[in-house]
UniProtKB/TrEMBL annotation:
MF-aspect GO terms: heme binding; iron ion binding; monooxygenase activity; oxidoreductase activity, acting on paired donors, with incorporation or reduction of molecular oxygen
Entry-linked CDD domains: CYP107-like
Keywords in alphabetical order: Heme, Iron, Metal-binding, Monooxygenase, Oxidoreductase
Xref: SUPFAM superfamilies: Cytochrome P450 (SSF48264)
Similarity section: Belongs to the cytochrome P450 family.
InterPro entries per record: Cyt_P450 (IPR001128), Cyt_P450_B (IPR002397), Cyt_P450_CS (IPR017972), Cyt_P450_sf (IPR036396)
The protein's name in its UniProt record: Cytochrome P450
Length: 425
């Protein structure tokens, strides 16, 4: 990553490999250095041969995510040959063509009226009310998992990722959607296989997931219940418009995958951050009312998602004074924005009292603009409940390894622990 820096601040000829292990193991330092050198830098990612611009500054990230001149679907760029882009992405991941549509036409792949339509139909059933009504159930699931942990012999080392951070969100999202208990372990395995980015595996997993969801939809059509899947089947707007079967399958896939992998690592990263900053944990224990703010700050400081999907410029434009050509891809590096000193004082410092108002969030860990995370309220709620209950039940909770030995799973655009070994007492 060393190359000449022009006097304009632009980094000439540099291409940052998003799969570079050094960058993936220190994305905070890496993207902060890039951010301070230039508004954008070229990036590369396997299977993508369109030029990608990595945007790292707070205002620029927000611009990319909210300016209509950027689209998620390259087909909306005038004159762009998208077949090539899509086919390459499908091939690179070993996805069988018959399953590609489930991954290519989701809510994150569409723009404008198509996006508003999908978002509106899912929002009819995935409401703020449904999320807040779920809170007691999230608390019960959490307590049951903690009961299981409490039964481990004193002094045993427990992996909190495996025993707590994963099971909580997968249980919650599966209950919400209506995925039966017996298939949940299978979903967790599928989720793991998908994020591992192993091409051979990817296709098989998608085929299995699609078949499973199709069967669930049939079952719910015959026996409706109060779950979200039944809500999706029934959802329609004033004009009688409703989700097609393909859209429903894609939506369930998105919700279950987006809903547990990410939240698990918010809990894992968040607990690790508090254990390595005991003064912040003590503050939170003294003042439990700080919890919503604490979760906002943890999302900023160690949120699990570091980059958004690619956006495509529909016309020639400029970001931070640098030119972006029509059809070029831009990736919003949330990690760069969340550590931008132009927006946050002393961004490297974890400070759970930082948010001026717990209802407002200025970090971009859940994205920004039209595609802002649909599940943010649920994820925040799970984070709050999980961290509060864990610290209440186990006041002596401590890391069982030196913080520098905490192992990360290195994935581009993602920040996650492979394991979180702790002692409960
Ligand atoms: C979108 C992060 C939890 C469902 C997004 C985006 C981000 C994000 C950054 C925007 C991506 C982009 O613009 O390219 C996170 C994080 C989570 C989390 C960090 C946990 C800590 C959830 C949960 C659900 C969910 C629990 C569902 C139950 C979605 C959906 C979208 C989305 C459906 C697409 C929205 C749209 O395109 O309109 N998420 N998410 N997420 N998220 Fe989340």
């Amino acid at each position: 990553m060393t190359s000449p820096v022009e006097s304009s601040g632009a980094v000439a000829g540099e291409v940052v490999d998003l799969m570079d292990p050094a960058l993936m193991s220190d994305p905070f330092g890496g993207f902060s250095r890039l951010r301070e050198r230039a508004a954008m830098v070229r990036g590369s990612f396997p299977g993508v041969d369109t030029p990608i611009w990595l945007v790292t500054r707070y205002d620029d990230v927000k611009l990319v995510l909210s300016d209509r001149r950027f689209v998620n679907d390259p087909a909306n760029v005038p004159g762009m040959d998208v077949r090539n882009i899509r086919e390459k992405a499908i091939q690179a991941r070993g996805i069988p063509p018959e399953c590609a549509r489930y991954l290519m036409d989701g809510i994150l792949d569409v723009d404008g009226a198509d996006h508003i339509r999908l978002r509106r139909l899912v929002s009819r059933t995935f409401t703020a009310r449904r999320v807040s009504e779920l809170r007691p159930r999230v608390e019960d699931i959490t307590e049951a998992l903690l009961d299981g942990l409490a039964a481990t012999p004193a002094n045993d080392v427990v992996d909190l990722i495996d025993r707590f951070a994963y099971p909580l969100p997968i249980t919650v999202i599966c209950e919400l959607v209506g995925i039966p208990e017996e298939s949940r372990p299978q979903w967790r395995e599928w989720g793991k296989a998908l994020v591992s980015l192993e091409p051979g595996h990817f296709g098989d997993v998608i085929v299995a997931m699609v078949a499973h969801i199709r069967e669930l939809i049939e079952r719910r059509r015959a026996e409706p219940s109060g779950d979200l899947l039944t809500g999706l089947i029934r959802a329609h707007d004033e004009d009688g418009d409703h989700l097609s079967d393909t859209e429903m399958i894609t939506m369930v896939l998105t919700l279950v995958l987006a809903g547990h992998e990410t939240t698990a690592h918010l809990i894992g990263n968040g607990v690790a951050a508090l254990l390595t900053h005991p003064e912040q944990l003590a503050l939170l224990r003294d003042e439990p009312g700080l919890m919503p703010r604490a979760v906002h700050e943890l999302m900023r400081w160690c949120g699990p998602v570091h980059a958004t999907r690619m956006r495509y410029a529909t016309e020639d434009l400029e970001i931070g004074g640098m030119p972006v050509r029509r059809g070029e891809a831009v990736m919003a590096m949330l990690v760069g924005a969340n550590y931008d000193p132009r927006e946050f004082d002393e961004p490297d410092r974890l400070d759970i009292t930082r948010e001026p108002d717990e209802r407002r969030e200025n970090h971009v860990g859940f994205g920004h603009g039209l595609h802002y995370c649909l599940g943010a309220a649920l994820a925040r709620q799970e984070g709050e409940v999980a961290i509060a209950a864990l610290s209440r039940r186990f006041p002596d909770l401590a890391l069982a390894v030196d913080p520098k030995d905490l192992q990360r799973q290195l994935l581009p655009g993602s920040w996650r622990l492979a394991r979180l070994p702790v002692r409960l007492s």
